[in-house]
Write a structure and sequence with these properties.
about 290 residues; mainly alpha
Length: about 290
């Protein structure tokens, strides 16, 4: 509660300061404007990465804060969750395998993987919007190859997913350090869960690339797989879905020290890669509409 109060006060102060700052200046100025050096941006990929950097950093911070907030309290939650029979039955449905602590960590990372998927899709949504407003026409008029803007957006999506996964791993390790006690395999669970995020989100980000390549108006369809996969993975047991149905969601699989989940995540990564390649192919060979 104290943390929420501090963050609320800090947010109010920042908003108050931001409302009174000069146009085109930062809230805090650490050096005179005369010392700012010109940016050296290398090509369309560099421009795209620069324009999406703020969004990527924000999503990394959000994912990290969620893990850092939830993971340290898993130990204290376990006794309360296992004392009541009704609660324990629900936990057994949601977390059917392994010890409760490891499964809680995995469940937290599955929640975060949804946010990472959204973060990875946003550069493709931005590309579709730029195409719809004919900004891509102006970019191509400068001599940029036909498919370069789409490929740059794909690179931005991949970089966003990788950085969010790295932030999740760092936050997970920090969260384990804040626990009063944790199992010896906690670090392994966190690292494998963080690595799994890349493969878990690959089909969802790949579908965004596919729809962006199909046409800028089709990009909205990409949210369908995200909602469906999230619902099946997180609420499948509560909705009465079978294990086979839940396993259809790429978010339901996580690498484990026993090797379980490796094949499923490899398939997810392959499907995501195929969708990306098809999307780039389609996008580079159609007229902008």
């Amino acid at each position: 509660m104290a943390i929420v109060l501090i963050l609320t006060v800090a947010l109010v102060l920042l908003l108050a300061i931001d409302a009174h700052r000069d146009f085109n200046t930062g809230v805090f100025r650490f050096h005179p404007r005369s010392r700012v050096r010109p940016r050296m941006v290398s090509g369309i990929i560099g421009i795209t990465l620069l324009s999406t950097r703020g969004s990527a950093i924000t999503w990394c911070a959000v994912c990290g804060l969620i893990i850092l907030t939830m993971l340290p309290v898993t130990n204290s939650l376990i006794p309360a969750l296992t004392e009541d029979n009704a609660t324990l039955q629900v936990i057994d449905e949601l977390l059917p395998e392994g010890d409760v602590q490891s499964e809680l960590i995995i469940y937290i990372f599955q929640l975060v993987s949804i946010l990472v998927a959204i973060a990875g899709i946003l550069p493709m949504v931005a590309y579709a919007r730029e195409e719809r407003t004919h900004l891509i026409d102006s970019v191509r008029a400068t001599g940029v190859p036909r498919g370069a803007p789409l490929r740059a957006a794909v690179v931005a999506s991949i970089v966003t997913v990788l950085t969010c996964a790295a932030a999740a791993a760092l936050a997970g390790l920090a969260g384990l350090g804040l626990q009063n006690s944790n199992g010896g395999d906690g670090v392994t669970v966190v690292l494998l869960a963080s690595l799994s995020i890349i493969a878990q989100t690959a089909p969802l980000v790949g579908s965004a690339v596919f729809f962006a390549g199909l046409g800028n108006r089709a990009i909205h369809l990409t949210w369908g797989p995200v909602v469906l996969a999230s619902t099946v993975s997180l609420l499948g047991p509560v909705l009465g879905l079978s294990r086979a149905q839940i396993d259809l969601s790429p978010l339901s699989h996580t690498l484990r020290s026993t090797g379980d989940g490796t094949m499923e995540l490899a398939v997810s990564l392959a499907v995501g890669s195929a969708l990306v390649l098809v999307g780039i192919f389609l996008g580079s060979r159609r007229d902008l509409v």
